[in-house]
Every structure is written in C-alpha cells, then in structure tokens.
Design a protein that fits this description.
Shape: globular
Strand content: 5-15%
Helix content: 40-55%
Structural class: alpha/beta
Radius of gyration: 19 Å
Distance between the termini: 41 Å
CATH topology of the largest domain: Rossmann fold
CATH superfamily of the largest domain: Glycogen Phosphorylase B
Order of helices and strands: HEHEEHEHEHEHEHEHHH
C-alpha cells in the first residue's frame, strides 16, 4: 500500500517527460490515455537466442521473488492444491522465502524450497525443469520470469491471467483450475521437448522480444526525440 502511494505521487513527473517507454500493452495503454507520451518496447533480458534443452526433465519449477506477496500467495496455493496432490518432484525457488512457506513445503517429501539461489544455480534449475508452472494473480506489469523460462526452459504452463498482457501465451499451455493444472502436468511430464517446439517459440520471441531489435528501436526513439 505504501509503495503504491509513493508510485502514485511520483507518477506526476511523467506529465513533463518526453516519452514513457512501457514494456507491456496494459502499461502502454494506461500511459497513452493519461499522458499521451507512451511508446511500447519489449523488455531487455539475458538471452540473444533460445537456450532451451530438448528431451525430458524430471521436476516442476515455480520461481520468482518469494518476498513479493503475490509470489508467496501463488506458492502457498500451489503447495496446498497442486504439488501435494501429484507424485512428481516440485521446486519453488527464489529470493527470501518466508518461514511459513518453507515450513508448509517441509511437510511434503516431493516439494523443495530453494532459498536465494545463486545465478548459476537458478539458470540450471530453469534449463533442467520439465515444466515451468507460472500462474499469475494480476495482469499488471510484465511477467519477466515467464520470458526467461521461454528462452531457456522447456514446457511453460500458465493461467489465463498470465497471458492477458502479452503474446507469450501462444507458446504456453494454459490451465486455470487446480484440476486443470494437475491434468496438464500429468500430460506434460511425459512429453519430450523438441527442436520443433524451440523453433516455434523462437519465431514468436524474435517478433517482440529480440534484444538487438529493441535496442535499435530504442536508439531510434532517442535520436528522434532528443536531437539538437
């Protein structure tokens, strides 16, 4: 609540800026309506091409900043309603998980919480998971962790909310209810990830999320708006 109030107060400065570079369609539409100075450009990320592995992994991964209320709420729900109901190994990885979350996971032998993984460890988890289970509770902002999973991971399973503010849902599987999520997990845990899937995914990602393309667009925006 406090952060929201700070942001609302700070937002007033946007009336006088040359342009706002929004990274999601929702944000772009909001700033365009309110300040008439927004441009849409995809977020930058660590990948210049797909690094996904083919084949089959042996665990399910949810990752994110676990100190964020939304991510903790999702983790708690997944443990209670999904992970505890399936026979597969499940990992929840991210920054500063609460003691409550860690304690809840400890009751199940197939669930592990990885606290504050190093960069290399996190990269390894993303690349080796069979399923990235990344539902969302809100449509605000951009789900960068989903973009990272699509560039470096195998199957991505999301809910309808996670796909509303971007085009990434076209190369993901979607399920909303707990029973639908579990059914998709049973299917995807035995489905090999193929080179054809990587090619299809890379084609979509290159349209809006290519670093080189977006860097060129950013340079063009700067030159157009800040010439002497």
């Amino acid at each position: 609540m406090v952060e929201a109030l700070k942001l609302k107060f700070y937002e007033k400065v946007l009336r006088s800026v040359t342009c706002v570079l929004a990274i999601s369609p929702n944000d772009h539409n909001y700033f365009s309506r309110k300040y008439h100075n927004s441009l849409l450009i995809g977020p930058f990320h660590p990948y210049n091409h797909s690094e996904s592995l083919t084949g089959i992994g042996d665990f399910i991964l949810f990752h994110g900043d676990l100190s964020v209320n939304e991510n903790e709420a999702i983790s708690n729900s997944l443990i209670t309603n999904v992970f505890s109901k399936i026979p597969y190994f499940c990992i929840i990885a991210g920054k500063n998980p609460s003691e409550k979350l860690t304690s809840l996971a400890s009751h199940y032998s197939n669930i592990q919480v990885v606290s504050n993984p190093e960069k290399g460890e996190m990269a390894s988890l993303i690349m080796n998971a069979q399923i990235h289970l990344l539902p969302a509770l809100t449509t605000n902002g951009f789900k960068l962790k989903l973009l990272l999973a699509l560039y470096a991971g195998r199957h991505c399973l999301i809910n309808s909310i996670a796909s509303k503010n971007n085009s990434l849902g076209k190369v993901c599987y979607t399920a909303d209810s707990n029973s639908e999520i579990i059914a998709q997990i049973h299917k995807l845990m035995h489905l090999p990830f193929t080179t054809e899937m990587i090619t299809e995914r890379q084609k979509l990602l290159s349209e809006n999320y290519c670093n080189l393309t977006n860097a060129s667009r950013l340079i063009e925006i700067i030159n157009r708006n800040f010439q002497d």
